[in-house]
Specification:
single chain; 507 residues; Rossmann fold; Lipoxygenase-1; 2 domains; eleven-stranded mixed sheet; eight-stranded antiparallel sheet; elongated; binds 2-acetamido-2-deoxy-beta-D-glucopyranose; metal ion binding; glycoprotein; disulfide bond
Length: 507
Amino acid sequence: MSCSFVCGWTMDRKAILSWTFLLCLCVMISSAAGANTVLKDEEELEDWSNRKAPTGRIKYNMRKSLNLDQDGCYLQRGKNASLEECGFNATAKTIFIIHGWTMSGMFETWMRKLVSAVMQRENEANVVVVDWLSLAQQLYPDAVNHTHTVGSDIAAMLNWLQDERALPLENVHLIGYSLGAHVAGYAGTYVKGSIGRITGLDPAGPMFEGVEEQKRLSPDDADFVDVLHTYTREALGVSIGIQQAIGDIDIYPNGGEVQPGCGLADVLSLAGNFMEVMKCEHERAVHLFVDSLMNKEHVSYAFQCTDPQRFRKGICLSCRKNRCNGIGYNARKMRKRRNSKMYLKTRAVTPFGGYHYQMKMHVFDRKHSENADPTFFVKLYGSHNDTGNMPVEIADSIGLNHTNTFLVFTEEDIGDLLKIKLTWEGASESWTSLWSNVRKSLMTWNTKPAKAVLEVRRIRVKAGETQKKYTFCAQDSSQTEISPGDSITYVKCRDGWEVKPKKRLPM
Ligand SMILES: *[C@@H]1O[C@H](CO)[C@@H](O)[C@H](O)[C@H]1NC(C)=O
Ligand SMILES: *[C@@H]1O[C@H](CO)[C@@H](O)[C@H](O)[C@H]1NC(C)=O
Ligand SMILES: *[C@@H]1O[C@H](CO)[C@@H](O)[C@H](O)[C@H]1NC(C)=O
Ligand SMILES: *[C@@H]1O[C@H](CO)[C@@H](O)[C@H](O)[C@H]1NC(C)=O
Ligand SMILES: *[C@@H]1O[C@H](CO)[C@@H](O)[C@H](O)[C@H]1NC(C)=O
């Protein structure tokens, strides 16, 4: 698709101008800077659609073997024989994978990865790729319009399977990426009965954000609707992935905004371009889902929280009353509770899961160090491995005479947490603190500034993945004061957070 075509068209349709403008910009940049990259991608693309496929515009390609170079087989509504030929097993799970908008008109490389991961995890399932490429390779608003057509076609296919083979709808799982998520929503709306599960992988935002439930994926479309949001950052008034919560659970990895490993620098260093940055963040939802299929033994959990800022403070690491859930394929159906937003941090590469710790420490100021504004680091020592020094991230600044709560995320499994080292960055290590000291000494006419002294006696820790709570006390109970450049080591002193034993009942 040529860029001028897209750009010319945006002139009179203002609503999607910015989205198309963005893409246009990216296409221009990619064709100018990386014609080779584009070609390479196309070579990798699967083109099942051109191989002895039925003539309809919506095709149901049932994958028959893990060898994805083989064609698979096409299910055709009304043709009993196609079910035999494809070996459709009505008592097994049925998983439909639905792609989104396309500029190339071909399957992108993620499709192969997702299909293969689904087939490996569910080796008896009927895995069907819904191919609506010819309707998706249109101007974005036209492709949006077609989501309705494709969704009702899938509903008709499922109705036929119910009539013909008594297919139990509760065994049906639709997985839709981007526009494909809303296609799945329409399928759920029009099918007779209720589909078991719909997973939306970064459902498309433009023309769906803020519209009524009937016109987008919504919790009514299946018994369980789970959504991963990975690219909800707004640019020029739109975001490519929908920002609002639209499922029974909505998971926002890394806040749903900036995915690790997708930064401009990360991607450009891998011979990418701006298009690749967008693709990296949007497509991350698919890769997180693939990861959840492949890494059954290390389930990543997401935690319910009212907003990403509170999550970043470490306030929300609870699993009580369904407040946490596995992500991706491992998400469990919960009692209907609408629009439950959940968060987690991830690594930049597969396996994406890491380990979350909530830490609380009361910072006492007993020696008039009101202006201390400390920069703290923690280093965790575990039974398997240790972390490096990690900055303590607190939104504003460390509160004095105050209990500070923060989130620590480790990429490695360090095993049981044994020891914590708290370090106050030394004056010489940071130019800002150096400058503030210089300024202080100038202000006080060169009298040596008083050394700031704060006190931290213990650190309370809750591990998100195990839900265990511990209290860590200063290794040397007489050494709880800390100044710039100093460290204090804390060791586990009790399970749980109780500071004092509860009032004992008389024996
Ligand atoms: C399709 O096949 C099933 C079982 O193989 C059979 O019961 C049904 O009658 C067939 N339907 C038609 C329309 O041939
Ligand atoms: C169909 O699927 C069910 C459930 O997974 C399984 O028990 C059965 O063996 C399968 N039948 C065939 C013919 O593969
Ligand atoms: C959507 O598509 C239908 C045909 O499928 C067409 O009649 C209608 O005008 C289209 N709507 C828009 C807004 O393009
Ligand atoms: C903290 O409390 C102490 C008294 O316990 C007081 O002297 C000090 O000024 C307080 N510091 C701040 C920053 O409020
Ligand atoms: C410990 O972690 C480091 C990275 O922080 C890693 O390179 C190393 O392989 C790990 N060691 C073990 C024994 O897991």
